[in-house]
TrEMBL record:
Signal peptide from the UniProt entry: none
Protein name as catalogued: Glycosyltransferase family 39 protein
Keywords noted in UniProt: Cell membrane, Glycosyltransferase, Membrane, Transferase, Transmembrane, Transmembrane helix
Taxonomic placement: Bacteria, Pseudomonadati, Pseudomonadota, Gammaproteobacteria, Pseudomonadales
Organism name: Marinobacter xiaoshiensis
Membrane topology: Multi-pass membrane protein
Compartment annotation: Cell membrane
Chief subcellular location: membrane
Length: 499
């Protein structure tokens, strides 16, 4: 048992460490990661821990601040880098892996718990979100913490788990808002409907009134301070983000992006992508068992076993809630995956046939290997991304004190904002023309679309010279009037400092 445990642990550590390393090598690609990274960088820079800022002067009302707090704190400790901003999500994922272990061991066995952890850690969305600057890992941590605590308390556990139930709510409310309560409430209510007799007497084990007061005391102050500091926050966040966003597929009220208009029911397809490769294999295995005449056993076992029924409703809750919503993303599936992984982990632990044993080993390696190869190709330049890291780095290495800030014509990507430390500018052609005649800079660094022809570049400035390009843009250097004055002065034997 010890040897088997050590092998399992080594594999799990290798999976988590592979993602840990990739966090430092993979640049931020537009749009989600650099957008949230820049919000966290501004929080660390300004010291404003109440209001996240989308850009200076524009408050970010789209999400509560917990993820930004952790990322800004990581910047304070490790400095500004991809690694420091991704590190909190990695820690949140490690915490969820442990919660999966704890619940699976409680319901079944150590062997099931081992496979459940491996399944969860190697699902596509889990592995990706473990090293990504997003809010979803913190929402999933909060919902998982609450639901695991609830299950353990219902099974007879006491002590801190009674209070961790409410701590998970706090994490959810401060990372994503009231959505956390919905994703927690759906599985609990459904499970109580299925197992009322077993659970009715156990509900009193939770300190409901004191726990709710603790939750309110930890959550409400920020919501109140946020509204007082930037009035309008509560209306936008509570009504807009939690009602209009999901009822209106083309909701035009999003201040920070665009609505994701998906067909209703698309969330179930997202589940297949998010749980890849395990979800697809598990569904195929379940279908085979169903058609082999094991239908009654599957249904009876699910209904009669409170542990299985709780895992099932917890895994289904996000899909049930978002089925009729048109504005969805595949990351909304993450709160489902810890419980999906435990259900699949039991199946994986029971595979005794040689072919199935080899299959599950390959499934463990599939996502980590694919993503590690992709990260390696990107780090070595074989694969290009929608990121401005290289272009901004080139500008920072070549510019002098008399040169202009980095100017993006008409469109400033989030990655350019982040990698420039907030100094890159968005400007129109008219604004650039005014800057050219202002005699302010020796050289203008201007970024235009890569699709611009030589004639369009010449139309911007006849002296414009392309110095580099990436997947989307080309960087132009345009001599300014300050440069022309210096050239004339040098030709007449007069130093520019004498002018």
């Amino acid at each position: 048992m010890s040897k088997r445990f050590n092998v399992w642990l080594l594999i799990l550590v290798a999976v988590l460490v592979s993602r840990f390393i990739g966090m430092a090598l993979f640049p931020f690609a537009d749009t989600t990661e650099p957008r949230y990274a820049e919000i966290a960088r501004l929080m660390a820079e300004t010291g404003d821990w109440i209001t996240p800022w989308f850009e200076p002067g524009v408050p970010f009302w789209g999400k509560p601040p917990l993820s930004f707090w952790t990322q800004a704190a990581a910047i304070k400790v490790f400095g500004v880098s991809e690694f420091s901003l991704r590190f909190p999500a990695w820690l949140a994922t490690v915490a969820m892996v442990w919660l999966v272990w704890r619940l699976a061991r409680q319901i079944w066995s150590v062997q099931v718990a081992q496979w459940s952890c491996l399944v969860f850690a190697t699902m596509a969305l889990t592995y990706i979100s473990a090293g990504a600057v997003m809010t979803d890992a913190f929402l999933a941590l909060g919902t998982t913490l609450t639901l695991v605590s609830f299950c353990l308390v219902m099974a007879g556990e006491g002590g801190l788990w009674r209070w961790i139930f409410f701590l998970g709510m706090v994490i959810g409310l401060l990372s994503k808002g009231p959505l956390a309560i919905v994703l927690i409430g759906i599985p609990i209510v459904l499970w109580l409907c299925l197992s009322w007799r077993e659970a009715a007497n156990n509900l009193q084990r939770l300190p409901w009134w004191r726990g709710i007061l603790m939750t309110a005391a930890l959550v409400c102050p920020w919501y109140i301070l946020a509204e007082l500091k930037t009035p309008g926050f509560l209306d936008y966040f509570i009504v807009g983000e939690h009602v209009r966003r999901f009822l209106d597929p083309g909701w035009a009220g999003d201040l920070y992006g665009s609505a994701h208009n998906q067909p209703k029911g698309m969330i179930w397809m997202f589940w297949l992508w998010a749980s890849f490769p395990w979800g697809f294999v598990a569904l195929v295995s379940l279908a085979l068992a169903w058609f082999r005449g094991k239908r009654r056993g599957i249904v009876n076992n699910t209904i009669s076993n409170p542990g299985i029924s709780f895992l099932l409703v917890s895994a289904l809750a996000p899909m049930l809630f978002f089925t009729l919503a048109g504005n969805t993303l595949w990351t909304y599936i993450l709160p489902s995956l810890p419980f999906t992984a435990i259900l699949i982990g039991r199946w994986a632990s029971e595979c005794q046939a040689f072919r199935l044993a080899r299959l599950r080993g390959g499934l463990v390696a599939l996502v980590p290997v694919l993503l590690t190869v992709f990260v390696s190709l990107t780090a070595t330049g074989w694969q290009s991304l929608k990121t401005e890291k290289a272009l901004v780095s080139y500008y920072q290495l070549t510019r002098t004190a008399d040169d202009s800030p980095l100017i993006y014509l008409d469109d400033l990507p989030f990655s350019a904002r982040f990698y420039s430390g907030g100094t890159a500018l968005e400007m129109t052609k008219g604004g650039l023309s005014n800057l050219q005649t202002a005699e302010a800079y020796q050289r203008l660094y201007v970024v235009v679309s890569r699709t611009w022809s030589d004639e369009e570049v010449a139309g911007l400035a006849s002296s414009a010279r392309k110095v580099m390009e990436n997947r989307r843009y080309q960087l132009l250097v345009i001599p300014g009037l300050l440069h022309d004055q210096q050239s004339v002065s040098d030709a007449n034997g007069v130093r520019s400092s004498d002018i």
